[in-house]
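fyi for ur records
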Amino acid sequence: MTETRKQRSRYRYGTRGFTEEVHHRFVKPSTLKEQKFASKIFSLLEAADKEASLEEKDTIQRLFAAFLSERNVELIEDGDRRQLKRWDGNAPTAVRDRTGGYEIEKRGFVDHSYRVVDKESGFVSYATEPYQIRDIGVRDLADLQDEGWSTTIRADGLHFPSRTLQVVLQRKEY
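which gave:
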């Protein structure tokens, strides 16, 4: 069954098909080895684009996202930083409870949160990766800036690359 233009536009690429989107977005790899490798991957993806259902295309995207996520975590760990799984009691939305512990408030931007620690200095950044940030989340982030946190929002979340944002919060140094 062929996809209609309306079905294709519901998928990720607007009115372009997968092949056109790849040509539009990516430049040729620089070395011959990279070109051959990219060509092999591109051929497989092009065939999948022609033959796959929308559900199968979604599975392909999820597999690529998982690969990219794992690779980006490896880059963090191999570099000068270390990723930790949870926010701690010093996190921007941590609230102390009666027992002396803490709880992380789920504000309008907190989802899939983790810490990144500089291996040398011990400086901690808090990252959260929501699928979207609505107006209440933007207000919450502005409040945190007023409370001494710097905020960076990037379009390259690790949780689900291409679908999640990455919000990085760091205590401002005065």
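Residues 5-78 form one domain. thats all i got for now
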